[in-house]
């Protein structure tokens, strides 16, 4: 048994799992998504240059990745305390901050935000998707990658003494690349050593979540302590969803607040609305998966902050939970999804 066993590791140190309260298991407070910039449609360039005005808000919500400035969430780190205090006022207790190496993780900023607001913040270890890997990362062996990830949890990351409390979000695309496969194997090895929670960003293909689970399992990972993120844009067929759910990971619906007509990273996908996300959760509850469900907003751009007219980190607590209660999900089941399941997942074995 390690010193971490039975505890949750926040950026301010170890805490008793009972202290977490309502938890968003997939958010970003400071990061860069610039590598995903998608040029605006011809004629929209001027709007994209000057997006944060009332008359441009609809365009920005529909085209969030076509404005460079919108992708620089890290510029807001100093003012993010107010957003977190709104989350706290709505009854929130904990944020899992999934920013990993490749998208500008800022651990000192996370520690400061936790101190300023009293919100428990849990930082993520490991690496994002292949196109953010450096050449040095690509050349590393699985053993070296494992050492880095274990070190980020046990000693601190990015040259700081801030320790990560989860591995992930570990980024994978579709098809999964060689470098991503090595990182997945390292993740499984580190998890086997540490007994820690893992969270995965799957590629945008219905086959991706199952393939990730296969790789993790083969390398000795603990699927019962692993979260599959972004199911709302990945698995639509109910049969396929149940087949995946049967593999035993946590099932995360984490794009609450995103309502877009065209999803630029996969134009085949019809991004669901929040009502459809609630429907999917109600379906999984009815099928007996209430102990596996998790929810979040995955805020990763500026326009989703309340400061820019967005829904902020309190949207689920203020707007989605009341809707869930009208759609066959009980308060007891809501509490499982927002409190008990995150607590169980985040507690080191
Ligand atoms: C870093 C944030 C992130 O990866 N979000 C996922 C966006 S999407 O793949 O679901 O569009």
From TrEMBL:
Cofactor: a divalent metal cation
Residues annotated for a divalent metal cation 1 binding in this entry: 26, 28, 169, 298
GO molecular function, one term: hydrolase activity
Catalytic reaction annotation: N-acetyl-L-leucine + H2O = L-leucine + acetate; N-acetyltaurine + H2O = taurine + acetate; N-acetyl-L-methionine + H2O = L-methionine + acetate; N-propanoyltaurine + H2O = propanoate + taurine
Superkingdom, taxonomy of origin: Eukaryota
Binding positions for a divalent metal cation 2 per the UniProt entry: 169, 201, 230
Statement: the UniProt record of this protein carries the keyword Membrane: no
SUPFAM superfamilies with a match to the protein in the record: Metallo-dependent hydrolases
Cofactor binding mode and count: Binds 2 divalent metal cations per subunit.
InterPro entries xref list: Metal_Hydrolase, Phosphotriesterase
Keyword annotations from UniProtKB, A to Z: Hydrolase, Metal-binding
Protein family membership: Belongs to the metallo-dependent hydrolases superfamily. Phosphotriesterase family.
Protein name in the entry: N-acetyltaurine hydrolase
Species per Swiss-Prot/TrEMBL record: Austrofundulus limnaeus (Annual killifish)
Lineage summary: Eukaryota, Metazoa, Chordata, Craniata, Vertebrata
